[in-house]
Specification:
This is Two-component system response regulator. The structure is a single chain. With about 280 residues, this protein is of the alpha/beta class. It is about 50% helix and about 20% strand. α7 links the parallel β6 and β7. It is built from 10 helices and 9 strands. Strands 1, 2, 3, 4, 5, 6, 7, 8 and 9 form a 9-stranded mixed beta sheet that branches. About 30% of the residues are buried. Bound molecules: ligand C2E and calcium ion (CA) (3 copies). Ligand C2E binds next to β2, α2 and β6. One calcium ion binds next to β6.
Length: about 280
């Protein structure tokens, strides 16, 4: 049993060494990727329900690695966060998202609304607001059309969060809670913080038709958002049936493969130019 234990230990430590090697490799690669033109942005439309007008987009980063091919953000964002590379990556995303979207109009000729994901570490940085202000000035993107998506865990330090949210509000930048319902934050956090919008996580949506509990939770979240006067958007809508159910529940905003996958800006421009057939 002793020998077996030793082998197992060796097995684990080899495995761990390999994984930390891989992480290091990705981390170094990511630093190069930012300056080396390997990152791109895709934009996923956000639409009104039930009429499916495109009112905004969410920017989602893509990494085309020269040897490993396309690496999904779920794989490299956590590494970027732990290593601190997220600071440079976040600045790159914001700058390029604003530049690419600066000229795009919504159906009524206004600036199309842009949502950008921001990690807790970026959000809490003391120079975050200044950097944001500079980026907006440099790119000419209007603050009023920008929205930052943060998760519940980002708001753990209430005092600091209040301070930053206050600054953002002064600038006219909106804030939404991403993946809402998956975190552990108490609802009082929402009541005490100036949040504009909640994004209901797609885990509540995928079996909406067959899961009365999931449906009840979504209904409760819609009622909550309403009473707190926050907008709501549902992510991960894949079927027309889900869209119908969600519309009936009073959800006015949606995002998901049913409407469009995340796409390059050139495809977005085509999509915006296409009459929607109804
Ligand atoms: P997220 O912010 O929750 O983004 C939504 C994810 O769901 C995206 O995955 C999107 O492609 C996917 N999605 C959209 N509609 C559907 C649908 O109908 N069905 C299904 N199954 N999936 C759908 P993606 O692009 O792989 O991004 C994964 C996560 O990586 C994001 O989750 C976000 O947390 C993070 N991420 C992506 N870009 C950035 C970024 O620029 N900065 C930061 N900090 N995080 C980012
Ligand atoms: Ca998001
Ligand atoms: Ca989300
Ligand atoms: Ca998510």
């Amino acid at each position: 049993a002793k020998a077996e234990g030793r082998n197992r230990y060796q097995f684990y430590s080899q495995d761990m060494a390999e994984r930390s090697n891989q992480r290091l490799h990705l981390e170094q690669g990511l630093r190069r990727a930012i300056d080396g033109g390997q990152l791109t942005l895709h934009f996923q439309p956000q639409v009104t329900l039930p009429d499916r007008q495109i009112v905004g987009v969410e920017a989602l980063v893509r990494w085309q690695h020269p040897e490993l091919g396309m690496i999904p953000p779920a794989r490299f964002i956590p590494i970027a966060e732990e290593s601190g590379v997220i600071d440079a990556l976040g600045r790159w995303v914001l700058e390029h998202a604003c530049l690419e979207m600066a000229g795009l109009k919504d159906g009524l000729g206004g600036q199309l609304h842009l949502a950008v994901n921001v990690s807790a570490r970026e959000f809490m940085r003391s120079d975050f607001i200044d950097a944001l202000r500079e980026t907006l000035a440099r790119t000419g993107f209007p603050a009023a059309a920008l929205e930052l998506e943060i998760t519940e865990s980002t708001l753990q330090t209430i005092d600091r969060s209040l301070e930053i949210l206050g600054e953002l509000k002064k600038l006219g930048i909106a804030v939404s809670i991403d993946d809402f319902g998956t975190g552990y934050s108490s609802l009082s956090v929402l009541r005490n913080l100036p949040i504009d919008r909640i994004k209901i996580d797609r885990s509540f949506i995928h079996d909406l038709q067959h899961n009365p509990d999931g449906a009840a939770i979504v209904k409760a979240m819609v009622a909550l958002a309403e009473s707190l006067r926050m907008d709501i958007i549902v992510e991960g809508i894949e079927t027309a049936e889900q869209a119908v159910i969600l519309t009936r529940m009073g959800c006015a905003g949606g995002q998901g493969y049913l409407f469009s996958r995340p796409i390059p800006v050139a495809d977005l421009i085509k999509l915006l130019a296409t009459p929607d057939g109804d």
